[in-house]
Specification:
single chain, two-stranded parallel ribbon, alpha+beta, 461 residues, 4-stranded antiparallel sheet, 67% helix, disordered N terminus, Outer membrane efflux proteins (OEP), 11 helices
């Protein structure tokens, strides 16, 4: 029985060593973000929306410029000429004719086109803000998935350590039971705890794979890589002295979703003006130049001709009645404007809620980190006392193992709280649209290869 469980523990340790999730080339958040920007569908769709909006702006501006067109034709003609006079014989002509014309129309007063151009510019700004928001959200989602993966890795390591500790506890209890120092219920309890620890390892392995899959949903398929660990004394920013109201003020002027909603409202308001402008007269400058050529005249015996003609003038169009269609379009645009106004208010409330949530989550994470730090200090003191007592014969090996488990649990909780703090701060900065490449580099500086962090922890101890 004991040998079978030792083999199980050995297999689990081998899986941890050779697992492709945690071995391979070191991975950084900057590299993950670069991959995500090249493959994440929502972000790429936002980029495409900007290109669409810019093309429509060019179309709207083009409606203000001269419209020039050219037409031409070449015809082969076969004409029979027959009169009702018997003295005039029937005539037949075969001849070619051609014509060409170039026309120019320059809008002089088309207010709907002017409003449409302004509307298109608002739509472009809306798309750009949506792209900015997609970039901020991509960064926040990626950071959340990245630190969730690191937390899952820590949980797996902790579970494997717990399993190893429970196995050693079981062996200790088995020896005590054989010597008559422990009872059968104590033995069964130790076996139950070992089984639970084994189940925890399985659950932690599944959670790790799920977190990796969540990360790959953002970045695309990843090869084997080595996950870093948080530096012992790493700190990105301290919000303990900051005021929530200051952050909320920045939300009003910097949240990309809110700014996009404002531009959407401006575009909807411009649509109302554009539809109303269709009731107004339009004035255009029109000019044309044409040339017609024919090898023979209009009647037999006439000479062919070349006609050149040019014209220039003003064309006024006054809408009188459209069956109520244009009035209905104006009513529709007014309703769409009201909808855009309400969506802008919804975006403002959502942005403030996101900022508040991130703020309070950071505060909660800071409190948990302080508690975890104190828990580590307490556990280290308890472990030192337990080891001293064991050496003096005052404590049992079980008490030392329990103190070690308490220390590892404190370290895990402390790291998880630090991860949550970082993610909350990222989401807070995303809420006001100020995440930059410098933040990516700063986060990567907080992480280091596992071997380096182990040496830092040993030095700190």
């Amino acid at each position: 029985m004991r040998s079978r469980w030792c083999l199980r523990v050995l297999c689990l340790c081998c899986c941890a060593v050779f697992c492709p999730v945690v071995r391979g080339e070191p991975m950084t958040l900057a590299a993950l973000l670069a991959r995500a920007r090249q493959s994440e569908p929502a972000y790429l769709a936002a980029q495409a929306d900007v290109a669409v909006a810019e093309a429509r702006e060019d179309q709207a501006f083009g409606a203000l410029l001269p419209q020039v067109s050219m037409t031409g034709n070449v015809n082969a003609n076969n004409r029979n000429y027959h009169t009702r006079s018997a003295s005039i014989p029937e005539e037949r002509d075969r001849y070619n004719s051609n014509s060409a014309q170039i026309s120019l129309t320059q809008p002089l007063w088309r207010y709907a086109n002017v409003v449409g151009w302004r509307q298109a510019k608002s739509v472009v700004e809306q798309a750009r803000q949506q792209l900015s928001g997609a970039g901020q959200e991509l960064f926040a989602r990626l950071a959340g998935a990245w630190f969730d993966l690191l937390a899952a890795r820590d949980a797996l390591v902790f579970s494997e350590q717990q399993l190893s500790a429970r196995q050693r506890e079981l062996e200790t209890v088995e020896r005590g039971e054989a010597l008559g120092e422990n009872s059968l219920p104590q033995l069964e309890e130790a076996r139950s705890q070992r089984e639970q620890a084994h189940a925890d390892v399985r659950m932690a392995e599944a959670e790790l794979q799920y977190r990796r899959a969540a990360l790959e949903q953002i970045t695309g398929r990843l090869e084997a890589f080595e996950m870093p660990e948080l530096r012992t004394e790493a700190e990105w920013a301290n919000l303990a002295e900051a005021r929530l109201e200051d952050w909320l003020d920045k939300v009003e002027s910097g949240n990309p979703a809110l700014l996009a909603a404002r531009h959407a409202y401006e575009a909807a308001a411009a649509e109302v003006g554009k539809q109303r402008a269709h009731h107004s007269p339009t004035l255009d400058l029109v000019a044309s130049y044409s040339k017609n050529s024919q090898e023979v005249g209009g009647f037999p015996g006439q000479y062919g001709y070349d006609i050149k003609q040019g014209s220039v003038g003003l064309q006024l169009t006054v809408p009188l009645y459209s069956g109520g269609t244009q009035s209905a379009k104006v009513a529709e645009a007014v309703a769409q404007r009201e909808k855009a106004r309400l969506e802008m208010e919804t975006a403002r409330r959502a942005a403030e809620l996101a900022a508040r949530q991130a703020w309070f989550l950071w505060q909660g994470g800071a409190a948990r980190a302080r508690a975890g730090d104190q828990m580590i200090l307490s556990a280290r003191a308890a472990l030192a006392q337990a080891r001293k007592g064991e050496n003096l014969g005052l404590n049992t090996r079980l008490e030392t193992l329990q103190a070690e488990q308490q220390l590892r649990a404190g370290e895990r909780e402390y790291r998880k709280a630090r991860y949550d703090q970082l993610v909350s701060h990222i989401r807070l900065k995303a809420a006001i649209g100020v995440l930059t490449a410098g933040d990516v580099a700063a986060l990567d500086m907080l992480l280091a290869p596992a071997s380096q962090t182990v040496s830092e922890e040993n030095t700190a101890r």
